[in-house]
Design goal:
By secondary structure, this protein is mainly alpha-helical. The protein has helices at 3-23, 30-39, 52-64, 68-92, 97-107, 111-116, 123-142, 146-162, 167-179, 181-189, 191-214, 218-227, 236-250, 252-259, 267-274, 277-289, 298-311, 315-337, 351-364, 375-384, 406-409, and strands spanning 369-372, 391-395, 411-412, 420-423, 436-441, 455-460. The chain has a six-stranded mixed beta sheet with strand order 3-2-1-4-6-5.
Amino acid sequence: MPNKILLPSVIILLLLKIVALNFTTFNLFGDEAQYWLWSKDIHFGYFSKPPFLSWIIRIYTEMLGSSFVSLKLLPTFVYLLIAWSIFNLLVNSGLNKKDSLAGCLIFLFIPAVSFSSFIISTDLFLLLFWTLSLNELIKISREQRLKNFILLGIFVGLGFLSKYAAVYFIICLFILILLDKNFRKVFLDNLFGFSLAFLSVFIIIMPNIIWNFNNGWITFSHTSDNANLENIEFDLVRGLEFLFIQVLMLGPLLVFGGAFSLIKKNRLQKILLIFSLPIIIIVFVEAVIVRANANWAAPALISLFILFYMGIKNSILKILNFVFNFTFCAVFFIMIATSYPFNFFNRINGLANYAKEIYNLSSNQSVERIVISDRLLFSSMSYELREKNIEFYMPHKKNTEITNHFKISSPLKSKTEKNFLLIGSPSDINYLENKYKLIKKIAPDQKFTKRNFDIYGVIFE
């Protein structure tokens, strides 16, 4: 596709997204609100994730504010950086600048980017630093300069601070050393350089390691709990669904068109396959034996995109791929603009109205404290009522299991004696020492969740 068509198309979709954000009635998803809430209390780590995204949100909101539209534009800015990194990676992979520019623009059209550019997630910066790391590794495979080893370590370290899935990069690197004799020679001849790279990684992630140590390694415990290996239930269909989604997210025509290039293998293809297939295989196995979210293999899509883009030669397939991806993106943002009543959007629909009703209940009861048992609802209400004079707390009995960050940062103390509104179950607060009575309230509409949250006025005697 000529760049004179691609660039205006990117601008059209960007404008469409801005319009969609201003017209939609959808709200932030609970995890997005959680990252925003974390950014108000800067640490070197949080219960379920490393801290980099929250640091960036803090800097970003200090400059551009915390409005829905402003926050939802953050992923777009990050994807422009990722596209720039894709351009450099393509150039360093041997493409000319014209084709590399086309490649980075086409990347912005793939369904995975269209979808995730609407979501504030830790994948954003993982993908950015993954691409930058892969770019340095490609450079090192050709020319071993000390600067590239240090940059490799810095980018991988920042990837770890973005999301622990950056460990896949280390796994893929060792597989590359094991399977590629040329790169193995590069590794053995440059042990000092690679040592500097690993030292750089260690220095960057050390504050997060210290934070985890001081907090009982709760982040790593949460990560291992996600594996959920105690509930093994083999389901091949679940694995095939995962693979289907990966193909859809890249664009089916790009995948099948570029796959023919694998008949003639070269060294670059080998590197790209090694930095994608192991991840796909690992997450596929997880999907079959337990479960797996589609984004768990997100870093693999970077290498696969480069691989298939450089391999697709048929101009008709390129045009059809562009039409498919552009249509997907346009339809997606039109659905957002019109707040289309699709089940997929239920979880981000109605939260603002619910928060308004909750605030009215608290005002009528003359309380300024709301206690919420559910993590996602806690985050969403904290964001939606951010300009109100409300304090939020999470039920948590001292010395019991910590299941989310708000039990660390905002626990409801056992000796509390101020009245509050409870969203949850009475059993959640049975550890309170002072006597109180419960008054059940009529709950507002809760279409954003399948779970019904009971609401009580808690009045101390």
